[in-house]
Amino acid sequence: MLFLGALGGPTFADNWSQFHGPDGKGYVADAKIPSSWGDEDYAWRLELPSEDVGSPAIQAGKAFLLASDPAKATRRLLAVELASGKVLWQRSFDSQPHHLHLRNTYAASTPAVDAEHVYVAWSEPEHTFLKCFTHDGREVWSRDLGRWQSQHGFGTSPVLLDGKVILYDSQQGQQLRPGDAPGRSRMLALDPQTGATIWETPLSTTRVCYGVPALYQPAGGPQQIVATSNGEGAFGLDADTGKMLWNLEVFRSRCVSSPLVVGDLVIGSAGSGGGGNHLVAVRAVGGQPEEVYRLERAAPYVPTPAVAGDLMFVLADNGIVSCLEVNTGKPIWAKRLGGNFGASPVVLGDKLLVITLGGEATVLSASRDSQELGSFDLGGKVSATPAYSDGYLLLRVGNELRCLGPGVT
User: What is the helix (H) or strand (E) element at residue 355, kind and residue range?
Assistant: First the structure.
């Protein structure tokens, strides 16, 4: 079901082209959102076939997202007009039902988008697919990367870095069920036009990690693809060749959140459903990485922190949100909100938005002041990270995609 609001014809200047925003930091400097809103404020609401974990990506006035059929494991890629909520096209793909973590779904991946194409990934036990489509839904290429091993199901996302499609194909090698064979972990760089492999780097296969890699440009050195795992720790690969340039084993557990690059710092976190979460900042200079700071309390397991200027906003899964100086790790404030969290925080303009798994939204001042500006119930479960472009905020609430349009104050 689609509900339409009165909207103008915007021009689209910025894009939310991957998981957690254009550079993975979850921040749009000139964004504007209200401190609270209700059902009457949505520009449109689009009914989806299920509740899913994957987030939307936005490019040139279109939102792209995966949805699924939980009973049949069917995956569906949708393109939605951002201004109206109209479904422009959709493509469906049959799949094999298989075991998932209680909080995972068959559509747990966020698309990556550039000016020409949209890239999507998913897996089943014997196949891992990475597909490329034009913005009007024509399939350009498809790769089957082989079997995939995890007790939790697929959850990473492709990303475009240094002109390549990067997929972190992390798999499970420990804590397997009797009779299961370990997976084969690797980082893959593919040609965006053809899907051909540019390079492939084997990685340790320990516990499956889900973070989306990031791009790091050191002064006077080659561009790097950086990522985090409990095998290599924080690590950097030459973006042209895939060669391992450095790594530092700083994590005790699996990495679910995505790494952030701030100057010469690579920041990542690790943990488990049973606790022991920790966040670590590594300075990666000249191939001699060093640990700069570590957060052992109120660190995130699933949510990726957001960075705005010199501040980092860290959301622990158990509802403690903290503000740190991103370069030093110095704590500025911490606030207990309560609830459980899976979606990552985003900073939109001068406001920090966090949403519990149950759909309780809180808007705080994204500053050195921990002022709470609004708290309200969205009326449905929220596992997917919000997306924002040109005044439009997209939220996946229950089995709906909702749009808060420009002009709502």
Answer: strand 351-355
How does DSSP classify residue 5?
-
Q: Which two tokens stand for residue 328?
A: 């030093």
Phi, psi of 330 (to 5 degrees): -65, 125
CATH number (domain holding residue 400): 2.130.10.10
Whether this prediction's pTM lies above 0.70 is answered by: yes
CA distances for 283 relative to 38, 155, 229, 265, 407, angstroms: 43, 27, 16, 5, 41
Domain extent, residue 320, equals 12-404
- pLDDT value at residue 12: 42
Q: List Cβ neighbours of 187 (8 Å cut-off, separation of 6 or more).
A: 166, 167, 168, 169, 200, 201, 203, 213, 225, 227, 237, 242
Domains held by the chain: number: 1
1 part of a folded domain: no
What pLDDT is stored for residue 1 in this prediction?
36
Q: What pLDDT score does 15 carry?
A: 93
pLDDT in tens, 282-328: 998 877 899 999 999 999 999 999 999 999 999 999 999 999 999 99
pLDDT in tens, 177-203: 888 888 899 999 999 999 999 999 999
Instruction: Considering only residues 382 and 13, tell me which one the structure prediction assigns the higher pLDDT.
Output: 382
Beta carbons of 303 and 315 less than 8 angstroms apart: yes
Tell me if 6 is assigned to some domain: no
The Cα 344–Cα 322 span in angstroms is 13
Residues with Cβ within 8 Å of residue 161, at least 6 apart in sequence: 213, 214, 215, 225, 239
Average pLDDT, integer, range 332-358: 97
Q: Is 278 part of any domain?
A: yes
List the beta strands (DSSP E) in 18-163: 27-28, 42-47, 57-59, 62-69, 74-81, 87-93, 112-113, 117-124, 127-134, 139-144, 159-161
For residue 7, tell me if it sits in a domain.
no
Sole residue written with tokens 């985090």: 228
